Automatic annotation (TrEMBL):
Keywords: DNA-binding, Nucleus, Transcription, Transcription regulation
The organism's place on the tree of life at top rank: Eukaryota
Domain TF-B3: 291-346
Keyword Lipoprotein: no
Key word Isomerase present: no
Gene Ontology MF terms: DNA binding
Native species: Heracleum sosnowskyi
Compartments reported by the entry: Nucleus
Protein name according to UniProt: TF-B3 domain-containing protein
Alphabetical list of PROSITE patterns matching this protein: B3
Main location: nucleus
GO cellular component terms attached to this protein's record: nucleus
Length: 352
């Protein structure tokens, strides 16, 4: 269920008993304001198994329609959490967390109109999610308990140290204590964001990659993702610059501007960086308050690396022109997250 392009803020719907016997869900107004013009009137919600949920979007009301059969097929009772992810194109990715706050074991099925076979969901690739709701009676500053259901699924893959990556690409080191089943080190997150504790958030969503990394998304009381200030090399509210550890440049060529661009090569000058990516991997590029997930592939005996899916959205959203130079920079321990700046080739147009 890998998707590439513009990364819109996630939103979460906690299903009520009334929801699961109905056919509609309301989308957060903040999401509709920012992305409503991009969303088509008909599209699919895509689950990790390949299961497709056909829905219609009522732009005027900000409502998704056509969910009743999906709720019935999955036998939802209320209390389940639906995590919506949008990458600026046609469909949404959808993941489901149970009432135990851990991602569910998905039924191995596809919808009746589909002819493909379902994909068995594994920890790798794709990761596994859990949610942590903030308790207003308990200040959370440094440690978080892991849900039992998440431990039952992922404990054997948990090491003692992890990188925690925030929505702006900044990261910090955390530790896992097997005896207490807690992850500690969140004081670093508080320091990066200039917060006394984590209780200003309503919920944190963690995505474990199955190796040594968790992605963290924070949500407000409306269950809309909070986009943190900063970028991988400009930390949080302080704006402190991190030391650049890795970088590469791409000079935009005329053929990169074609309607269908089938790949943008990264120069072999940066082979030492590219060799740290998998054969089919991704990077996330941050500019201002926006980020894009870009597919990177290595081929020709792993000597040539190319940006594939996501480039066209990245190019269009940044209004790139032939001759512009995109500079990608990342700090240490962050080979997949880059701050991108654009050196303009157009007279009178500012760099960005």
């Amino acid at each position: 269920m890998e998707s590439f392009g513009l990364e819109a803020p996630k939103f979460v719907k906690i299903l009520s008993r009334k929801d699961v016997v109905g056919d509609e869900l309301k989308i957060p107004s903040s999401f509709c304001t920012q992305f409503g013009e991009r969303i088509r009137s008909k599209f699919h919600l895509k689950l990790r198994t390949g299961f497709l949920v056909p829905v219609e979007f009522d732009k005027r009301r900000g409502v998704l329609m056509g969910l009743g059969s999906f709720f019935n097929q999955f036998d939802f009772k209320g209390g389940e959490m639906l995590v919506f992810e949008y990458f600026g194109r046609l469909d949404f990715n959808l993941s489901v967390l149970g009432t135990n706050c851990s991602e569910i074991e998905y039924p191995l099925m596809v919808n009746s109109f589909q002819t493909c076979k379902p994909v068995r969901v594994k920890l790798v690739p794709g990761g596994w999610r859990f949610a942590k709701f903030m308790d207003p009676t308990e200040k959370i500053y440094d440690e978080i308990d892991l849900p039992l259901a998440f431990l039952n699924r992922c404990a054997s893959a948990l090491y003692y140290h992890f990188r925690m990556v925030l929505s702006n690409g900044t990261n910090f080191l955390a530790r896992y204590d097997r005896d207490s089943s807690k992850i500690t080190g969140f004081h670093s997150m508080c320091e990066i964001l200039g917060l006394p504790d984590l209780n200003s958030f309503h919920m944190l969503l963690f995505t474990f990659d199955g190796y040594l990394k968790f992605d963290i998304s924070a949500f407000d009381a409306n269950m809309f993702e909070i986009v943190f200030p900063g970028s991988p090399i400009r930390c949080g509210v302080t704006g402190e610059l991190a030391v650049v550890s890795s970088r590469f440049e791409i000079k935009v060529q005329p053929f990169h501007m074609e309607r269908y661009c089938y790949g943008v090569d990264i120069s072999t000058e940066y082979m030492s960086l590219c060799s740290m990516w998998g054969r089919n991997d991704y990077i996330v590029a941050y500019n201002g308050s926006c980020s894009w997930k870009l597919q990177v592939k290595r081929r020709n005996l792993w000597k040539r690396t190319t940006i594939h899916d996501g480039w066209i959205d990245f190019r269009n959203d940044l209004d790139l022109k032939a001759g512009d130079v995109c500079v990608f920079e990342s700090p240490a321990f962050s080979i997949n997250h880059f701050t991108v700046s654009v050196i303009s080739n157009s007279p009178g147009q500012a760099n960005r």
